[in-house]
Protein 1
Amino acid sequence: MRQHFAQSGRASLSLFFVFMIIAVVSMALAVRLPQVQSTLDTVVSAQMSPSPNPLNFKTKFVSFEPLRSLTTAQAQSSIRSFLGGQNVRAIYPVDVYTLKFEVTVEDGSYSPITAQVFVPKSETPGEHFPLFVYAAGTTGLDDRCSPLKENQSRPSFGNYINQMVTQASQGFVVVLPNYEGFDNPDRIHYYFNSDLEARVLLGVSREVLNARQTRSLPIQPNTLFFGGYSQGGHASFAAADYVSKYTPELKISGIIGHGPTTNIYELLKDNPNLAPYLMYAYQAYYDDFKPEELLTTRELERLGRAKDLCVDQAFQYNSTSQRMTYNADFLAALLNNTVKEKYPAAAERMDENSSGTQYEGIPTLIVQGDRDPIVTIEFQKQFADQLCENNVPVTFAEYKGLDHFQSRMRSFTDTNFWIREIVNGQQVNKMCN
């Protein structure tokens, strides 16, 4: 039986326009398709990576340094920014730290990762708090678009820093990492790559829990929750998929998806304006992924710009039209669910990067607005049913009248309540029989 948290409310995510210079694609070749291919080759030549090898996973601690301290009044300012008029009060001041570590990637080399750790400051000796590792939604591919570089006074990416301060002020040790590639000048963020997302979330959890410099953090023993918004939901489910392979010593207490985008086919169907990110990143990462087989000529000519547009700009610049983004053959295959037959190489990469399909037994909360245009309520219910079939205990929280952005904010109190029920060993409401 599904549980529905019926709520109404308004929350808006302000997007601000940022003027930028966009590189002009190369011209003057007489034949149009060779011109496009030449542009694509130039775009990805410096970014090519070998195919992923998930057998090698290591982390290396670098540093853990204090960044700033926030009073309860300052934390309350973050609450107002993130939650608007909701009646939530800051309980704890918050100390913020910067954690730097390295994680191995597909070829066995190390790549640097930066994370921020938000720690409630308690006056009660010995008080400890659940560990909540959170993954951001789509922000872009280039380092300047990383979640930790968002201007906190202009929440143009997703208001993640204010969200983390809000969460910590309620009694959680919260970790927000950049995705792999953001902090590496030799790489980009390889968008919707399940393996790399999992490496980051599992790696940062290992370092927070085990590094000598972080052992004094007031983390409640045997608590580790992964959460994420949109793409971050994809990353959280990827961590659940890979935990037994990479970090079997970690026991995940729960998975939270705020409008999680877990399926690559659905992402492309519902969000043509985000397709350039995925096409650019997948061609840069996989030798056999060919955007020229999938996109219109117009989109191919513009594809190089995907690297430079942060998400606030992408929503303004990229087309929301399926027909203007995908060529007729690929669009037909996408809509008729025949991509695997028509485009087997592309389908293989999409399948291996759809997350949430390989784990069982971990309590899972899915938060979904019924007016979400990014991930539809119909798909999300199908995904929840699939999890149930995989022996995953699912709580499905549907919010009436809310969209993709609003449900994350409006579910804040319910999400915290669900986590605390798990921590306290209580039974949570589940839709699975």
Protein 2
Amino acid sequence: MHCVCCIKQVPNTADVKIDPDTNTLIRSGVESISNPFDIVALETAVRLKDQYGGKVTVISMGPPQAESCLREALSMGADEVILLSDRAFAGADTLATSYTLAKAIEQVHRRRPVDLIVCGKQAIDGDTAQTGPGIATRLGYTQFTYVVEVQGLDEAKGEIQVKRKVEGGFEIIRGPLPALLTVELEAAKPRRAPLPLLIHSLRAKVAVWDAQAIGADPAMIGLKGSPTWVKRIFGPPAKEGGPAFDAQKDPRHAVAQGLDALMADERFAQQLLKGWKQ
């Protein structure tokens, strides 16, 4: 089985701040990390390799420094890593990104047929959850989104069975290979990299492919191939704090004060009356 995993290097959103004057992200001093959803996707792919055998190829699109997340992938058990890096890729939205990754996967497939693609559900710097489905659509692969568990894979029949989130519960579904999965954070707990693989990851070669190497149409990549762009980034407006009541001395009085404050809110009172009528 040949599994391809797509990962992305992202800014650590816990450290990201917004410049109130320019409404842009302040990237100075912000640590770059591997997208957490993608690390779970990688763990899922490596577990499938451990169980069924085969190969895991990891692809990332980004600047030269994104090589670090590919070395992390090697330390976790990836067999081959490829960095898609070209100035022409800059400014790509999800449409252009999915096109670029799909073209790279086509090249990988020519060398060894790809049975499964595993992606994180979304990237924490964009939260669109569009790239994985976009790749599947371009390649004509079966797609399973919001996957929390891979329950079985039958290479002889060319089928995979997964458990996925749906509104109000879960769904167990089976479909044909080749397929693409987008996985939730709870799909797997990423392993700790063993020392031999850590050493290997530092010495291994990272292949770098540009737009020409994947046979990309210049009009379909980067800013030229992106019909959407970010016009402005801004934080939510600060909210005024609500009233506070001291419940240490007189809890009953504090509760009564709280109820009075809630009833003074017209919207809350209307919802409360509506609930009583029902």
Protein 3
Amino acid sequence: MSVFRMKGFDLEQGKAAMKVGTDGTLLGAYTIEWLRKSLIRPQRILDVGTGTGVIALMMAQMFPSAEVAAIEIDHGAAETARRNFSRSPFASRLSLTEGDYSSVSSGTSPREYDLIVSNPPYHNGSYLPGDEQRQIARHSGTLPPEVLFGTSTELLSPSGYIAVVLPTSVLPLYDRAALSCGLEMVHRCLIQTIAGKACKRVIGLWTGGGHSDCTEELLTISTGAGYSVRYAGLMRDFLTIF
């Protein structure tokens, strides 16, 4: 059985189509830091498309008074996440629902969450990976931006935030969908894997209207000679290599 060990918890990965990776862990760590610097302490958090449960677990670790819910459409991944939750030190504050986001949300109290996070499927076009589970996990047809933001606005508290990690190429598509739902981007973090290379990922944070500025940061993961000080600092509470 494949187990990924983190500082605060262990993750079984066996039945999850998408394993623990940089996108998810960086989304969790960066969002936590940004909220803390903004003096925001969410009490109700929702992880959409939780996969192994890594982002939900990171949130539970670093916000010790928060209740963290997760939604996952894939049965195998949902089983895996449920086991990871139950074996963690935060089991009493974690819950999981298996199903489609837009359908599951109908049974959830409106305006309930202070923070909604998602590492959504991102393949959009004619190409699909061959494995069916990976198709579900990676193809944007299962969670298009209109559904992600449209459903989230029904569940988000008036002062709540949505944090998403995406390929930079699809950020305009997601931002248009967010704007159509009355959400404005307040911060984005452009991510380059190696110094000097093009940024292929971005973390965006959206909230309700009334914010005039969108701040921006460039985050480099590797200098070419090792991990950057910035990246190591972000991941120090989570990854055992730091």
Protein 4
Amino acid sequence: MSIATILAAQAAKAAKTIAQLTSSQKNKILNVMADELEQHQSLILTTNQFEVDNAKEQSYDSAFVDRLTLSSERIKAMSDGLRQVAVLPDPVGEKRHIGQRPNGISIDKVRIPLGVICMIFEARPNVTADAAALCFKSGNAVILRGGKEALQTSLAIANILRQVLARFGLPKDAILVVPDTDRQLMLQLIKQRQHIDLVIPRGGEGLIQFVTDHSSIPVIQHFKGVCHLYVDQSADFAQASNLLINGKVQRPGVCNALECLLVHRSIADQWLPQVAAQLRAHQVSINACSEAIGYFDDATLLADDAFGEEYLGLTIAVKIVDDIDAAIRHIDQFGSQHTEVICTQSELAAQQFQHQVDASVVMVNASSRFSDGSELGLGAEIGIATTKLHAYGPMGLESLTTEKFLVLGHGQIRA
């Protein structure tokens, strides 16, 4: 029996037990997990620093290193994320009445866990805790396969959580970290449809495409975040600048950072000189269309068909568009169905953007950085789905469950 089969079978067995826990039991355990992460932060930070140093020695870029790096503040945020999940309503067991048939049978639907979720991600050790918490609260077991650069940090975090499970007499295999990042093992894992119910890849385009192409199990893609800010002709310039700088500069290496600025032609002369100074002050590089390039010093010319890149750093594309229709067409062509933002004072423009833009999250006069499970009230998120089946957008607890029918009869038989 292969390692992948053993891991999947262990998780499936553990899932049966986790699915039976009450909400109060799960909440108590999550709070203990949060406390334990904080109490063992020195171990986590020491392990993480070793991996961060290795990444720097191997010349990984700054965005990658940022995603890999943990700090006391980030561990506190990780722990708080677990506590937030603990106070969220538990979707498991929610029942809704469908109706009663003429023959007298009564029909309900009840929400149940999916079973075993395989989470495949790159060098983001915080995903270990976030995914484990959400899967546990929703009654699922989870298999975590992270990137090799963060493997030891992920193992350290998971071992702390697993020890809490053992303390409460629960199977530690409800939270499993794949101890080997060999791609062949991952390939075997995503074929384990007998034991695994869902695969969620989070990471670069190549990873997600590989998993999608080779998995025998349903896949929810957390695809790249090519997020746009469209600044309409009626926009408040100060507000637009704040949305731009926050969306691009605060954490440029994350998937909800802005990657492209679209500007209505009628305001380009007034606003783009301000933008040039603001982006220069934050050392943001510019890739601009032929019409916008003249507003920026040292900008790189970007061909009309070269948009759509996820920079994950201090670089942004800039394009001047004729109107909101042109902006929406551009987003349709180059967006990734992640998060799109409009800055406007026009209610009609806002409504058109909301209704016509095809993205999992559409913002009006709010930063793209709010496209996050905790910011949208879901607690820690397991990912932002850019595919529409069965979840779309930030995935919280309900996205990790499904429904089954409960039919109550009194001996009725079908004629």
